[in-house]
Amino acid sequence: MATLQLKNLKKVYDGGVVAVHGFNIDIKDGEFIVLVGPSGCGKSTTLRMVAGLEDISDGTLMIGDKDCTHLAAKDRDIAMVFQNYALYANMTVYENMAFSLTLRKDNPEDIHKKVMNAAEILGLTNQLNKKPRELSGGQRQRVAMGRSIVRNPKVFLFDEPLSNLDAKLRNSMRREIKLLHHRLGTTMIYVTHDQTEALTLADRIVVMSMGRVQQIGTPYEVYHKPANAFVGYFIGNPSMNFFECRVEGDKLVGKNNFVYQLDADEQAALASRNGNPILMATRPECITLDGEHEYQVDLVEHLGQYSLIHGTMHGYHTIIKVLGWQKIEHGSTIHVGFRKEKVCFFDIDNGARIGG
Amino acid sequence: MAKEKKKLVSEDTPVVVKKDPISVRIKNYFSPKGIQLEMLRYRPNKGSYFFSLLAIVCFAVGFCCFYSTTDLPLDSSKFNLLGFTVAGPWMGVDIVLNIILMLFLFFATIEMKSYSLTMGYVSIGIGVFQALRIFLLPLSLLNAGTMPPAIFTTMLIMYVLSGTFAILAGFLSVYRGTALRKYLKTVKPIENEKVGK
Predict the structure, then answer these.
(1) How far is CA B120 from CA B41, B165, B170, in A?
(2) For testing the chain A interface, which of B1, B3, B6 should be mutated: the one with the most A CBs within 10 Å?
């Protein structure tokens, strides 16, 4: 069993710089957790604290029933896969994968069985006698994963393992990591700045910003019910469209005669904000091509399966995502509307979501 | 439904490593079978490499011993090696021979890591010659009274050791290499198969 409990984990560097503020999460056995956020948000620092590569300034880390807060990295029974693979260039793939077990003075036959097993899982059986320089980026990353797998750790840690790969390879490796998780069933913590990886891989996502946890939830929750404006902006490609408006009774009023009619539920949620400014937000795919709002088209991007229509609506720069190849002229005017159930409201000062 | 987990080692069963008696381990090392043969595909022949390096070291010590004394008189009426009574030219031959042998032994050291049969036989050949060459020039010089017995004794030990290690390295390479080659004929090849010529 490999549950993890991170209780108020905090990291303060010399000079008083707080990299991580009070990180709290309970991770179930076999769960795939993804830490996602922009560069410098503290996700790698958090991962390194779990690995034992960084000291924990405050809080506790429990792996299973063991308090690992001040335990050396080698005693935590975890394995880590790095962004730059960290393979030994002078060793073959076989030797790289066997290295940790060789250091532990395991039986050579057991080492061989474990290495062959891991190589079979990762499709590296034919590459075992090659040196890392003879491998592609994806193969090197698989060797790095294989080196972790042979140790049969309680927890796998991935620190942006796909960042050095090209887009196509990233897609295929993402699938392989997901399949690996299904196959092994081991607890995994994965760090990335790519929200697509987060949404496709995670059982739960932890969105971080400036050292703080913004939201912990399933990919569905994080995408459709963002806890604050930052999550709404960061998750999703393109990001949410934001409209700064004022609550006036049963409607929202924005710039250039923008009016959004609130339904009963929305009115109830915003009742306490009457007369105050708020942020209204909706995803690009939740704006429909029929409605009462005039939309000035600036640019249409065709991406094959869908199109992105860049434009302005009542002075708000907006992006609309629609399926298919849309034949809309640049500079033309169309009319759009909102899918009511997909509209979110956020506090304009702290960005917190208003209502459910 | 519980998730099926693929574990490489069971968490519940403690791993008990039983070590075979040393005679069995030596026998298995020379004549690997089963999984040990499969392991040879991915592991270099460190045994041969190690013994071959030892052979080179002993060779070098013996060589340096021989030429460490500068007052070795070369002219002696008692010197006779294969009908030649002058030691000087033989010293030259000995130096060149040492260089060539050490070079080939060095090549053999590298190639035997890949279970090379050819270099295994070369190593055995060099080892036999090394062990026997003490009875050529060094013994002739000893009999002629021009080599101190202490130096001869040291050289004897070093050359015999060098020969023994070279022969051992060669045997390991030949035995294990042969077994590996037989095994490889029964399995699907992989890229960069470790086996040399």
Answers:
(1) 17, 12, 4
(2) B6
Distance between CA atoms of residues A141 and B155, nearest Å: 53
Residues A250 and A142 in one domain: no
Tell me the per-residue pLDDT of A5-36, one tens digit each, with 9 for 90 and over: 999 999 999 889 999 999 999 999 999 999 99
B54: number of CA atoms within 13 Å, CB side? 17
Residue type, B28: N
Q: Which of A52, A96, A48, A41 is nearest to A74 (CA)?
A: A52
Q: Is A352 domain-assigned?
A: no
Let me know whether A198 and A274 are in one domain.
no
pLDDT band at B16 (very low <50, low <70, confident <90, very high): low
CB atoms within 10 A of CB A15: 5
Contacts of B42 in chain A (CB under 8 A): 92, 94-95, 112, 115, 128-129
Distances (CA, A) of B62 to A206, B95, B98, B153, B155: 69, 12, 10, 10, 5
- Residue A200 and residue A55: Cα distance in Å, rounded? 31
Model pLDDT, residue A23: 93
- Pick from A198, A233, A268: which residue ends a domain? A233
Candidates A122, A124, A126, A188, partner chain B, best to mutate (most B CBs within 10 A): A126
Going by C-alpha positions, the residue among A70, A43, A65 that lies closest to residue A154 is: A65
Nearest to A125 among B6, B8, B190 (CB): B190
Q: Residue B8 — pLDDT band, cuts 50, 70, 90?
A: very low
| Cβ–Cβ below 8 Å for B190 and A129 | yes
**Residues of chain A contacting B, Cβ within 8 Å:** 30, 92, 94-95, 107-110, 112-118, 121, 125-130, 134, 149-150, 152, 183-186
Q: Which residue has the tokens 């040399």?
A: B196
Answer whether B194's CB lies under 8 Å from B41's CB.
yes
φ, ψ of residue A34 to 5 degrees: the values are -115, 130
The alpha-carbon gap from B174 to the nearest alpha carbon of chain A, in Å, equals 21
Mark whether A50 and A115 lie in a shared domain.
Answer: yes
Is the Cβ of B2 closer than 8 Å to some Cβ of chain A?
Answer: no
- CA torsion angle B191 B195 B196 B197 (round to 10): -110
- Helices assigned H by DSSP within chain B: 22-30, 35-40, 46-66, 87-112, 117-132, 137-143, 149-184
- For residues A285 and A338, what is the distance between their CA atoms, to the nearest angstrom? 10
Q: Please compute, for residue A141, the number of CA atoms within 13 A of its CA located in the half-sphere on the CB side.
A: 22
A113: domain CATH number is 3.40.50.300
Report the domain count for chain A: 2
ipTM above 0.85, yes or no: no
Domain that holds residue A150: 4-233
Residue B124 distance to chain A (closest CA, Å): 28
- Closest chain A residue to B9, measured at CA: A152
How distant is the Cα of A251 from the closest Cα of chain B, in angstroms?
Answer: 49
Q: Are residues A18 and A155 in the same domain?
A: yes
Task: Using DSSP, state whether A293 is helix, strand or coil.
Answer: strand
Do residues A220 and A252 both lie within one domain?
no
